[in-house]
Amino acid sequence: MPGHYLPHRPVIKSSSLTTKVRPVFDASFKQPGYSSLNECLSAGPSLSEQISPLLIRFRTNAIGVIADIKQAFLQLSVRPEDRNFLRFLWWNTEDRTKLEFFRHCRVVFGVTSSPFLLNASVRHHLDSTEYQIESLQATVKKLKRGFYVDNLTISVENQQELLEFKAQTMKIMNAASFELRFWAHTGTKHSETQNVLGLKWDTETDELYCVSLEIDMGISDNISKRKLLSIVNSIYDPIGFTSPATLLPKLLLQEAWRNKLDWDEELTLDMQLRYRRWAKHIAIIEKCQFLSGYCTEISKKLLYTYSLMLRLMDMPAVLFYDVKMKER
């Protein structure tokens, strides 16, 4: 009988509130001369909302709201005839010298087709609910534009709308065994900052900021074009909060291409100097904090925004002003 075994390894996350140690299955692993499981599967069409529009809608109204589906992929069953391709080995709990094999009966995180299967299932359920229950149509429409895989990210106008939305959402999603958990919204007090699609969110002050870089900046090393590209790509900022502070390495990368440097060729001495001067102050990224909402009670329909960035060529400084004007 044809089948496939998924290799796996433990991932330890001591900061996790739910699962501190979890097995991660590698569907991309392959032996020489053979294809991996992921290479044999179709990813399907992308049904996820884009992150930037999601964050814009999250910032539109006065109260931002987030939640996620508990064990989302485990709510979806795999057809019995496909389960042999999701086998894995595990030590016998009584005799550690013996191996046993198991099969996944549920959709596995890390398999190419899994995000599509989850998105399609949620979309199908919401479509069915929208046609069947007219009183829930407004909430369903908001949910359709609020999910990124298993993460819900939306905003509402006031506390009354928040209570109604939360109650209706839980009713809708529970009907398909999708339990929403870890609810957080503007004004709630948490011991730790929340994660909103890769950004950090302080719900008490309602401020967003980027996560500090967890990469070797190579200040004491000579930087190649490959290393510079890796550093540029490690700065996660989907809506451009930190653009004034992260412009320099992008300009250096552009200059490296213009000078036709090879991937592993070191930057020129002048470029190295400019990079190191910038890298010493990279901690400023985490200090760039912005209010989550950008609409006030006064300016609901029209918002005029003017931003100015000045880079002084003779000084390692960036001036950034954000001037907001009320509706006229």
UniProtKB/TrEMBL annotation:
Please state every residue range assigned to the domain named Reverse transcriptase.
26-180
Pfam families listed in its UniProt record: Peptidase_A17, RVT_1
- Tell me the GO BP annotations in alphabetical order: DNA biosynthetic process
Q: Looking at the record's lineage, which domain of life comes first? A: Eukaryota
Alphabetized PANTHER family for the sequence: GAG-LIKE PROTEIN (PTHR47331:SF1), PHD-TYPE DOMAIN-CONTAINING PROTEIN (PTHR47331)
Annotated protein name in UniProt:
Reverse transcriptase domain-containing protein
Q: Which organism is it from?
A: Caerostris darwini
